[in-house]
Amino acid sequence: MKDNFGRDITYLRVSVTKRCNLNCVYCGKTVCEKKESELSPEEIEKLVSAFAKCGITKVRLTGGEPLVRNDICDILGRIRRIDGIRTLALTTNGVHLSRYAKDLKQAGLDSVNISLDSTDGSTYRHMTGADVLKKVLEGIEEAQRAGLSPIKINAVLMKGINSDGAGDLIELARENEIDVRFIELMPFSDEGENASLLVTGDEILRRYPFLEPVVSEEGFARYYASAGFRGRVGLIEPISHKFCSSCNRVRLLSDGKVRPCLGYETVYDLMPFIDDESRLIREAREIILRKPAGHSFENKNAAHGLNRTGG
Fold it and tell me: Which end of the chain is more exposed for a tag (fewer CB within 10 A), N or C?
């Protein structure tokens, strides 16, 4: 269905937990959440079903880190069986992916996005607070073997921290059938609010002039490649190239609240209606209609930890 600004809302991101096994600097540098009230697989199924009846066709599971839930395959299987859901994806930091990749595929997962901000061990450890780069690289290999496709690497570049390693990440796209996407730093932490750390997509193109545009109608990323590339390099630029006018998504949080926009503070609680399907559908429709015109990242009060929203 369309929102009040004429955008077709077809994409639901579902944060299944606030918990995470890493502590990335751009998520807020806070101690990641302990287990508290999280939606059960049955509750997630009910909520996603309501949104499917409102025109949602794609679901992405996020966190926190979704693979810290030992019932993640049950959740995937339930969503896979919902009428109208055509695409089922997951975003992970990759630490547990080598263990779960095959089971995730069997449960119905189509594709996976993996957060990887550096291929250098010490830089990765500084950015995430954990010495687990080897596990993440093994996870990428297992995802390929399991047949998950497409596989996309998400990297947030920060000047003076990991920006010098962008070339090594680009090499992953040259050598593998993988898309490497650089996502502009958003203001979710003290560091994130510091504009001097921002690396824009245009800066990347100036630094790597061999990258040439690739025609693509996928999402918000601008895609590039070069001769001999097996994959692509994507630029996602919510700060320097605001794409709110074509946004097609809303976000279900791990406590049953819905955030229509990642960069906007308004949330709606659906849990009072969890056992009333018709009311759930009505509320979901109203939430879609009330999706704001654009984000408010320029307002520091809109900042909130990514582990809470499944950015």
Answer: N
